[in-house]
Amino acid sequence: MRPVRSGEHPFTGLLEWATLAMLRVATPADAPAIARVHVASWRTTYPGMLPDSYLAAMDVRDYTGRWARALSSPVSPGTVTVVEEGGEIVGFASCGRQRDGHQPYEGELYAIYLLQEVQGRGHGRALVEASAAALAGKRITSMVVWVLRDNAHARGFYERLGGAYLRKRELDFGFGVTAMEVSYLWADTLATLLKRPAPAG
Questions:
Q1: What is the pTM of this model?
Q2: Domain 12-141: what homologous superfamily?
């Protein structure tokens, strides 16, 4: 495993599978690129699951502002990791403490998105594992993710990574748009995703 270069994600060793790709922690300057990936991935992933009018109304400028605020917040408890190919951001994941109140798990994979043309190259697995590693660095070794119930491709992906089906709920997107989503849980990310000893302490 090669040394981690300045600016790279501390779990960059995952990227031995792609010598031209790099994981790193996002900065506020990445907000426009993250927003472009966010909107583009929704528009290629969710047709038939969400109304076409809702997807068409997504505004990259609006999402740029949202990500700029999130990445600039001094109190943000989460971590955003980006994956680059040829110096361009092609995917990202964000994670932090779970947002569901009192639950038997501590961490949550909030979002993970890749451009359609780079899927199938191992980037998704690397982003999930990097997020689990970021949480483990904060002594959080359980993680949940929510995914649209009808997104069979994503559900299969999480199941192959060892995620266990947990429960379902209705998600309200606003503007009269709702959809069912389901969750997958890794009760012990160190055993199922990272396969390395728990942090000391």
A1: 0.86
A2: Gcn5-related N-acetyltransferase (GNAT) (3.40.630.30)
Structural contact between residues 138 and 192, judged by C-beta atoms closer than 8 angstroms: no
Residue (of 94, 77, 109) closest to 37 by Cα position = 94
Q: What distance in Å separates the CA atoms of residue 108 and residue 97, rounded to the nearest whole number? A: 6
Q: With 0-12 CB in 10 A as exposed, 13-18 as middle and 19+ as buried, what is 195?
A: exposed
**Sign of torsion, CA 6 73 189 197?**
positive
The total of other beta-carbon atoms located within 10 Å of residue 86's CB is: 8
Given a contact cutoff of 8 angstroms between Cβ atoms, the answer to whether 124 and 154 are in contact is no
Ordered by start, the domain boundaries in the chain are 12-141
Identify the sign of the CA torsion 144, 148, 150, 152.
Answer: negative
Q: Which tens digits make up the pLDDT trace of 154-183? A: 999 999 999 999 999 999 988 889 999 999
